[in-house]
Design brief:
Layout: E1 2-4, E2 12-14, H1 21-33, E3 35-41, H2 47-58, E4 62-66, E5 71-77, E6 85-89, H3 94-103, E7 108-114, H4 117-121, H5 126-134, E8 138-141, E9 150-155, E10 160-165, H6 171-179, E11 187-192, H7 198-209, E12 215-217, E13 221-224, E14 234-236, H8 241-254, E15 257-261, H9 274-280, E16 284-288, E17 291-295, E18 304-306, H10 314-320, E19 328-331, H11 343-353, E20 358-361, E21 364-367, E22 375-377, H12 383-389, E23 399-401, H13 414-418
Parallel strand pairs: 2-15, 3-14, 6-7, 10-11, 18-19, 22-23
Antiparallel strand pairs: 1-23, 3-5, 4-5, 7-9, 8-9, 11-13, 12-13, 15-17, 16-17, 19-21, 20-21
Length: about 425
């Protein structure tokens, strides 16, 4: 447990946010698929990226990791998987589990992917398994419940046409896209959904940086020509916009100012748009070549917002909603019920513990401002619950965070970096 101390003066801080988990894990997998040496710089070192790195090494990919320099040197096998039998443990990493399930289909042998209890019960994978089966992959849930453990009996990837439901996670589509160039034939993916998917923009940008082209029609149809190959390169990872959201939000509720260097509004990371939500709530956003600065107002305004495409920041908004001048409504985030925890129910439970009036809907919440009741916040093994609700303690007394170590999933030194706000 850790107790967050309120700040006693307006913030004025520059915060260096570590590299994006989304970019780091995609780049590691693609570099493993390329033939030759790639260097991933500015990389995130966290539980999720270590699980990806360790699994790839277990599958025969040589990787030199240098955490001090935030780099990975990856010696790719050109799509070959020299190991014919492996049991891969991925903790609570959704990106890793989905991407590896697709990746091992390129091999020849039997592969088992397993993880922590939330992955075994809360985070589904059946839609990805269905899509892989349609293109000739033998992939199944060991207990036929649509969750890990997953068993893949691989004999290369034939390719062909498949339909994919991404309503629960766009990571299923990312997994298929990343491996598709190594299919024997073209891969055509028809997507069952009609939403924009910023995380797919990230996927396509990484594929393009390593030399592979994808033909698409919006987010509904993708065709990847078989026989393409990723080319090794030096790939620089930009700061994580989701993790930057906590520091922008800190400025918003304290009337202070926070700058995050090397982050730009034209980023493919959808969560960068969280600063635009804060702008609508009364904050001032200043953009320069060096980064983004956000300055908070005297009083933060309420807002009614659809957060489907930037749902990782929904918890950030929920945590600062008690300090607004009117109700905050968050809509269209039902898919977050199948993430590290049921995030809608978790945010409602913990806000009510703080004495905040909340109305829970199937796909969102309505949060009314109110005085804060001291409380110990449960985090549900969810890194974003811990990081978001720590913000409440910047404004209210006696806010404690249970299991703060869960931030190791994506931002291991989050609470040390948070201390920079007090300087």
């Amino acid at each position: 447990m850790i107790e967050i101390q309120p700040v006693r003066k307006p913030l004025d801080a520059t915060i260096d946010v570590p590299g994006s988990k989304s970019y780091t894990n995609r780049a590691l997998l693609v570099a493993a698929l390329a033939r030759g040496t790639s260097t991933v710089t500015g990389a995130l070192y966290s539980d999720d990226t270590r699980y990806m790195c360790n699994a790839l090494q277990k599958l025969g990919v040589e990787i030199d990791a240098d955490e001090k320099r935030a780099t990975f040197d990856v010696y790719g096998n050109g799509g070959d998987i020299p190991v014919s039998n492996a049991e891969l443990y991925i903790g609570n990493s959704g990106t890793t589990s989905r991407s590896l399930t697709a990746y091992v289909s390129l091999g020849c042998g039997r592969y088992v992917i397993d993880g922590d209890e939330p992955m075994r019960h809360g985070r589904p994978i059946s839609d990805l398994l269905d899509a892989l089966t349609q293109i000739g992959v033998s992939a199944r849930s060991q207990y036929d419940n649509g969750h890990l453990p997953v068993i893949v009996e691989a004999n290369g990837l034939a390719g062909g046409k498949t339909r994919l439901d991404v309503s629960k996670s766009s990571q299923f589509l990312t997994a298929l896209l990343l491996i598709a160039p190594y299919a024997k034939n073209d891969v055509e993916i028809e997507v069952i959904d009609d939403r924009e998917m910023p995380y797919i923009d990230i996927t396509l940008s990484v594929m393009e940086a390593f030399g592979v082209q994808v033909v698409s029609e919006g987010y509904q149809y993708f065709r990847i020509e078989g026989g393409q190959r990723y080319q090794p390169c030096i790939y620089n990872v930009e700061p994580d916009a989701s993790n930057a959201s906590y520091f922008f939000a800190a400025a918003a509720i304290t009337g202070g100012r926070v700058t995050v260097p090397n982050l730009h509004l034209d980023s493919r990371q959808g969560d960068i748009q969280f600063v635009r939500i804060l702008e609508q709530m009364g904050c001032q956003v200043t953009v320069s070549d060096s980064g983004i600065t956000l300055t908070g107002p005297r009083q933060l305004k309420g807002i009614d917002v659809d957060m489907r495409t930037i749902s990782d920041t929904a918890l950030t908004l929920a945590a600062i909603a008690p300090f607004t001048d009117s109700k905050v409504t968050i809509r269209n985030i039902e898919h977050t019920r199948w993430q590290e925890t049921d995030r809608i129910h978790a945010m409602v439970t913990e806000l009510r513990k703080l004495g905040i009036p909340v109305v829970e809907h199937r796909d969102g919440v309505e949060i009314s401002p109110a005085p804060i009741t001291p409380a110990a916040i449960d985090t549900y093994e969810d890194h974003r619950m811990a990081m978001a609700f720590a913000l409440v303690g910047l404004k209210a007394n006696e806010i404690r965070i249970n299991d703060p170590e869960c931030v190791s999933k994506t931002f291991p030194n989050y609470f040390q970096v948070l201390q920079q706000l007090y300087v």
